[in-house]
Give the backbone structure.
Amino acid sequence: MPEFAIKGDNVVTPEGIQPAVVLVSNSLITDVRSDVPEGYNYPIIDANNNVLMPGIIDPHVHINEPGRADWEGFDTATRAAIAGGLTTLVDMPLNSSPVTTTVGAFTKKIAATSGKLHTNCGFWGGLVPGNTADIEPLIEQGVLGFKAFLTHSGIDDFPNVTEADLRKAMPILAMHGLPLLVHCELSTDELLATGSKRSYQNYLTSRPKSWEDEAITLMIRLCEEYNCRTHIVHLSSANSLKAIAEAKQKKLPLTVETGQHYLFFNAEQIMDGQTQYKCAPPIREKINNDQLWKALREGLIDFVATDHSPAPPDLKQIDSGDFMSAWGGIASLQLSLPILWTAARQRGCNVADMARWLCENPAKLAGLSHRKGRIAVGYDADLLVWNPDTSFIVSEEMLHHRHKMTPYLNATLVGTVEQTYLGGVPVFENGQFQKLNAGQIVKRH
């Protein structure tokens, strides 16, 4: 493995952003110091005024392989990842086929990565009705935690759980110290939207904040009862922030993420028929999303993850503009950093905030905080060099996702990835892939 030093004026360390020299050997960070050691005769890379940060960790990605590689797949997803400075992903147990709810399915998932893993990747197991007996065998195979839905997932072979299912599973997860990630919407049979299927307001009405708020209330109650690590994925309802704050004041093992799209877009901007914006829960009004920003800055929301969930154009109903039948998911993996930075810098946030929201706190959820998410001695040399001042216009040509359809097309974003390192190996530099298939499978040990 390469041995080298990388220095810069803006290195994000646990002690703050400062000039520093990072020494790398055998894929690990061996020292972080103020100057190059006397007599050092290995290569020295100068990041100059760019930011040197830990590689981004995204624990909420739908890669969809095996079975639905026409939606995305490991090759395209992990190419997009290293081009965007993402050095570790954690793949969701759906929308692959089979879904990752058994050891047999997990084995097929691992096999599907062969020759196509360009960044590091871990895996969540799936919690569905009737698979309680599969939880510990999946833990033994190395999954990092489990994901459940409280409403229909969009995939019939990944049904939602009930409170009774959760009560069977949470004691097991608590015993092993693994997190339960929950899509928090408790839907009702009541028809809430009867307007035009092309109307975004109609779609927004169909998935009210109350669905989220009731589901989060349930999960907080069960989190406290079982002392089970509980993680709320893609929070969109600011109405739940008070309950989340109270739970954290009680020191419950509760964490929360929101998505870039809830921070970058507002419902008022979305025109009828623009199904590229459809996600669940939906993008809400500006006043709501401003509250999410406040909670993120105060640490009430722990981090930001893309929930990259692409689908072919026909499933997104791009031609018809039918929000009610379109697949709900936003493609944004490669743009994770500049989307968030573009919006964050307008609110006076800094690079240290970005490292906390995209690197350090996601590592904690995935149980990787002892080796990833920080520039510190003994940590993996997964590194990102980026320029926080340069801007670009998002085009289809620059995107490495399988499908180029994204609500960010033609947007002007700030922050460009200059170099991505995996275990000290340069894998992406100046817009070009340097080394492919350098990713490793990340399992719980």
Observations:
- The chain has eleven helices and 18 strands.
- The domain at 55-365 is CATH 3.20.20.140 (TIM Barrel).
- The mean pLDDT is 97.
